[in-house]
Structures are given as C-alpha cells and as structure tokens.
TrEMBL record:
PANTHER family: LOW QUALITY PROTEIN: ALDEHYDE OXIDASE GLOX-LIKE, SECRETED PROTEIN-RELATED
Protein name (record): GlxA-like beta barrel domain-containing protein
Compositionally biased tracts (Basic residues): 338-348
Start-end of Pro residues biased regions: 350-360
Signal peptide, first to last residue: none
C-alpha cells in the first residue's frame, strides 16, 4: 500500500508506528478494517518509481504531461517501435521493488499507456533494448543498471514482442560484468552491428571489465558476440558516442563502483568499426562516472557532462558533489580537411595526472567551468 502525506514538511512525519482509519467506513467495518503503518520520517528512503509521463515539445521547449503509466517506474527503458508506439520495460515500483515483468506500450496518438500482460518479461533496470532492422524483433544487449537477482534477466538475446519469445545469443565475454556497461551501434545503423563496452559485476562487486565485444545482428539466429579490442583500463559507466565518421568515442567511467577509491578514468579512445580496432584519443581533464553523458554537438565536437561519484577522496571519507564542469572534445577529423569546419588553434593546456601512454593521442579536450 502506498501512503502519501496530505501535509507538507514535518507536519506529515510520524516517528512511531501508527494506526489509520479508512474514510467512508462505519460501524463494525470501521472497527475491523484499518491501516497500520511503520514510522514515516524525512530520513533517506529507498528509490521509488513514479507513474508520470511527459512528451518534450521542441517548439515550446517544454515538457508536456501525458497519460500516466499503469506502473510506477524508476530507471525504466523506452524503446521506439516500428509503428511509432513506445515500449517501456523494467523499473523499480512505488515501493522501490523491481517490477517482475509488467511492460507497457505508449500510443503517441492517444497519449495513453496500455499494459501488455502478453509481453510479461523480466529485465534489470535500464535494460539496453534496441529495435533492429528485422520488423518485430528487438535486441537486448545485456547492458543494464542492475537491481534484482544476478541470475535473472542478464542474458542478451533477440526478443519478439509478437509472441513474447526470447532467443539468447552466445559469445559474450565477462557475461557477469554487464551492469553499468555501454551499448551502441558500431558504424552505420544499416550495418546492424553493435558493441558492448566495459561494465562491472552485480551491485558493488569489485569486478570491472575491459571488454569490448561486437555482434552482427544481420546473422539472425546465428548471431553471436565476438571479441573486439580491450579498453586501456577496466571501465564502468563508459560514455560511448557515435561520431560522423562512423568511429565511436569511448571516454570517462571508473574502475570501481561510482568512482570509489578515486577510481575515475582520465582516458579516452576511438573505436573503429571497419577494422575492429581501438586507437588513443585526447584524454579528458575531468573524471566522470555514474550519471554522466557524452553528446555529439552540431559542430561535430562532443560535450561530456555530469558525474556522480560517491566520494571525492581515495579513502572514501568525503562525500563528492555532483560534477558540474563541462568538457568539449574536438575529434581529429575537424583538423584533417575532412570537415568543412576548421576550429582555430588553441594554446595547449596542461593535463591532469593520468596513466602514461606510449601512443600519440589525436584530438583535443577542452574544459568549461
């Protein structure tokens, strides 16, 4: 049962277990049917989902409330479907418990959600689910944000919403280290190749992976992950950004859960799908892990932002603030004549201490803020 206070602030706080009456009941019903609740305080609570949903109006530049979901969700995934509807999967409910498999479809015409019992399937939170070129077939890479048991919903594979069938794929290395990993199309989406990058063990596991694996979805039932190059360092929370020349920038992340032990990575690389190789890129100045992003800008540059480490010291004794500095990465193609834009030269800035690299690092990183 969900209890919501009608009062704001401390007026709605109860420090002891309390009995509640139910409005509308009389006589014996009122005596025999009531609610009991534990203390309800302003202390930190478990994460809890909400049912509200919004569309973003790019012309008005504002979010517009649409119909509520049938389930409250925290950390769900939204996947666009060929008919224009949107599938939402997973999430923690209003009590902070992971949903066992209630998935819903959003209709942008009616602005409403329909729960689909025929699509009942469990996934960990933030499952990386993509629409493929084969109509009626989705692909779950195995990447996720965790929650729930380690032996459920972790296997990658093809999901057919038509009959709710699921066909696992093989070949994934470090399959027990897919929490906080990254997933992205490798090269043009028409090629139907995907990569999974880094990741870690379940929860606060000390395991963290250097793995990059590749899969060709065009092979259908014969598709399987194959090894790609290893990252320079084990990486959770990698920022993976597809670039206009079909390479992918892989930057930031941390070697431990939410940057514990001052483990943020000041490392960046470029993945080349045509050769399945990795080359060095200009390293970032700012460490970023949980709740960080990399965004391709209209200029062809990349902005990195955010970061939510638990601590700011190696001893894990000082709480870290949310990272508010921005960085701009200028890829090498903006300096080689392959782009109509040619940014002016800038005076090189000293970099933060990082692991030495024997390779040159093309491109530039610039810090803002």
């Amino acid at each position: 049962m969900w209890v919501e206070s009608e009062d704001t602030g401390t007026a709605g706080v109860t420090d002891v277990p309390t009995q509640y009456t139910i409005t509308g009941l009389t006589g014996a019903d009122a005596d025999n049917v009531y609610g009991l609740g534990q203390k309800m305080t302003m202390d930190k609570q478990d994460y809890q989902g909400i049912e509200q949903a919004y569309e973003f109006d790019p012309f008005a530049e504002e979010y517009v409330r649409v119909g509520d979901m049938n389930q409250k969700r925290w950390y769900p995934t939204l996947t666009g479907l060929p008919d224009g509807t949107v599938l939402t999967t997973s999430g923690l409910d209003g009590s902070g418990v992971i949903l066992p498999g209630q998935n819903e479809i959003y209709d942008p015409k009616s602005k409403t959600w329909t729960e689909r019992p025929d699509l009942f399937r469990y996934f960990p939170t933030y499952p990386a689910i993509f629409q493929t070129a084969k109509e009626g077939t989705l692909f779950y890479t195995g990447s996720n944000a965790g929650y729930g048991p380690a032996d459920q919903g972790r296997v990658p594979g093809f999901w057919n919403p038509g009959d709710n069938s699921f066909e696992p794929v093989a070949g994934l290395r470090d399959a027990d280290q897919m929490e906080t990993s990254g997933s992205a199309w490798a090269g043009p989406v028409q090629d139907q190749k995907m990569i999974v990058v880094g990741g870690g063990g379940v929860g606060e596991s000390p395991l963290t992976s250097k793995r990059i694996d590749v899969i060709d979805l065009k092979k259908g039932p014969k598709a399987a992950y194959t090894p790609g190059p290893d990252l320079p360092v084990p990486t959770r929370y990698p920022n993976v950004v597809q670039l206009p020349d079909d390479s992918l920038l892989i930057a930031n992340g941390s070697r431990d859960y939410r940057g514990k032990g001052a483990s943020d990575n000041l490392v960046a690389s470029l993945y080349h799908p045509d050769t399945n190789t990795l080359s060095a890129a200009a390293d970032p100045f700012v460490g970023r892990d949980y709740h960080s992003e990399g965004i391709l800008l209209p200029t062809g540059q990349v902005m990195t932002l955010g970061g939510n480490s638990l601590f700011k010291d190696a001893a894990d004794t000082k709480t870290a603030p949310f990272e508010q500095r921005l960085e701009i990465y200028t890829p090498p193609y903006l300096s080689t004549g392959r782009s109509r834009r040619s940014p002016r030269r800038r005076t090189p800035r000293p970099s933060a201490p990082r692991s030495p690299s024997p390779r040159p690092r093309p491109g530039r990183s610039r810090r803002r803020g």
